[in-house]
Design brief:
CATH architecture of the largest domain: Orthogonal Bundle
Mean pLDDT: 87
Number of domains: 2
Strand content: 15-25%
Structural class: alpha+beta
Radius of gyration: 22 Å
Distance between the termini: 53 Å
Strand order of the largest sheet: 3-4-6-5
Length: 187
């Protein structure tokens, strides 16, 4: 039974990681408000190494539609500005001395719908990942049956437990999706 518990625990942990990855993906997709996590995935070249933006500058929210980026070193201003411009976010930073202001444009209805479509794709990818984890766990359990290490009753119970874990995580994905869709469609 210890092996089965380990398999279930592993499946739950891997599904939690998928759920966290989905939350991070959702955080990158902005709604109408500025938030610092919007720029988290942007990397800049710093002395030959690509590092996250938040390791070379202070990112803060100036107002509901503006982020401010304050580099710790003056020579990083143009590098950071270029990194923000070339990101897939479609933002146009404005530099004022050593402070980079990043105004967020108002989302059009068309862009909102496109973002909802992207959010749904991310959620579906998370669901698929969780189903794959379930499949892997069930396969491992079937291997134990072949090696006669567990009984068929144990197999059935373990597969039911893994299915419950999967259902729970997929429900969480659906809840996150509903919240994010509502957030994106808010005017």
């Amino acid at each position: 039974m210890i092996m089965i518990d380990e398999i279930q625990e592993d499946a739950a942990q891997r599904m939690d990681k998928s759920l966290n990855a989905l939350k991070q993906a959702f955080a990158r997709l902005r709604a109408n408000r500025a938030h610092t996590s919007l720029l988290d995935h942007i990397t800049v070249s710093y002395y030959g190494n690509n590092v996250p933006l938040n390791q070379v500058a202070n990112v803060s929210v100036e107002d509901a539609r503006t982020l401010t980026v304050t580099p710790w070193e003056r020579q990083m201003v143009p590098v950071i500005e270029k990194a923000i411009m070339t990101s897939e976010l479609g933002l146009n930073p404005v530099t004022a001395g050593t402070v980079i202001r990043v105004p967020l444009p108002v989302l059009t209805e068309e862009r909102r719908r496109e973002m909802v479509r992207l959010v749904r794709q991310e959620a579906e990818a998370a669901r698929v990942a969780m189903r794959n984890i379930r499949r892997d766990s069930n396969h491992t359990i079937k291997e134990l049956i072949k090696e006669k290490e567990i009984s068929e009753d144990d197999q059935r119970r373990a597969e039911e437990a893994i299915q419950k874990i999967t259902d729970n995580h997929i429900t969480q994905v659906d809840e996150l999706l509903a919240v994010k869709e509502q957030d994106l469609m808010e005017v």
